[in-house]
């Protein structure tokens, strides 16, 4: 089964070089909200179907195409309904392919050639609301601590105390081992001997946001709200924090660490949504889905080396775990490091 999604995240008008829904082509790039995430996959799938129909191609086995319409808000009415329908028909899937990692060109430090990473797992996620309620007052006679001050201190503790570096505990180590030959000396020797060098490599990886994201559960403060008037001390301050959970940890473990780090009973912690990291899909030589994908990538991207990786974002495919044990996350395009912020 091949998945993609039609919806995009909002496109507020400010900050765009071209109108966000123009699809304007400039300097070899198509500009617009959702071009990478996930219109490129939708168009890729539909164009491939058209071509196959034109050529009178007869597939050896049946396959499904699933185009969700609410992936960016967790896929409850799109992907989940597709899963329900397939389950009610007793369908089992050989493998699922969804958006995810890509052909990375110059993104992994030390690797010169473009390499294709197939996401064989996906990080978990937990989103928390942190709320502080304190007596309100007038700014002319402030108390020693306010709701805003207490919440700011808690949020700052979370930022200053990241969750532990888990490199070597999770599947990201397999990625470096498989790509060892792509690094120049001495990195090739180090990657091939992670049992010895993982403490050094893990420190290097955590220095850059994109590789830090694969070695630990990340902490992102995404919403902060308090106060309405410059001379009123507000009763309530609230922050939203999103953690992306490393495959070596669980929701429960992360929650325990967060409680200990905040360590302030005045900060009320409530869970908005959470799920554990996804199971690791097989990527051995006998796995039909992984091998088919690897062969296809080799034929399209000039034999780029292929390795399994951890998808740091979440996808609709996570809803398909009861239909197959083989879920792969790969978007068929090249990404350079400057593209990561696009
Ligand atoms: C050694 C260096 C390795 C560096 C690897 C970095 C490569 C980055 C390449 C690609 C990025 C991966 C993006 C994957 C697709 C993500 C799709 C997406 O944006 N999802 C959203 C929305 C979302 C969907 N389900 C949930 C559930 C809970 C929260 C959010 C979402 C997202 O993940 O935020």
Strand content: 25-35%
Radius of gyration: 23 Å
Can you count the beta strands?
14
Unreliable residue runs: none
Q: Give the helix proportion (percent range).
A: 25-40%
Span between N and C termini?
28 Å
Listed once per kind, the bound small molecules are: ligand LXDHLVL2
How many strands, what sense, and barrel or not for the largest sheet?
Answer: 4 strands, mixed
Overall mean pLDDT = 96
Shape: globular
Tally of helical runs: 9
Strand order of the largest sheet: 13-6-5-14
Order of helices and strands: EEEHEHEEEEHHHHHEEEHEHEE
- Structural class assignment: alpha/beta
Task: Describe the protein.
This is Peptidase M20 dimerisation domain-containing protein. Pathway: Amino-acid metabolism; Lipid metabolism; fatty acid metabolism. Residues 121-265 form the Peptidase M20 dimerisation domain. With 342 residues, the protein is α/β, with parallel strands linked by helices. The chain has helices at residues 35-54, 79-88, 147-160, 172-178, 187-192, 194-205, 209-215, 251-262, 288-300, and strands at 2-5, 25-26, 29-30, 65-68, 96-105, 115-122, 124-133, 137-138, 218-226, 232-233, 236-245, 267-275, 306-311, 327-336. It has a 4-stranded mixed sheet with strand order 13-6-5-14. A 4-stranded antiparallel sheet has the order 9-11-7-12. The protein is globular, with a radius of gyration of 23 Å. The model has no long low-confidence stretch (mean pLDDT 96). The structure holds the ligand CCCCCCCC/C=C\CCCCCCCC(=O)N[C@@H](Cc1c[nH]c2ccccc12)C(=O)O. The ligand CCCCCCCC/C=C\CCCCCCCC(=O)N[C@@H](Cc1c[nH]c2ccccc12)C(=O)O is lined by residues 37, 71-72, 74, 99-102, 107-108, 125, 210-211, 214, 311-315, 335, 340.
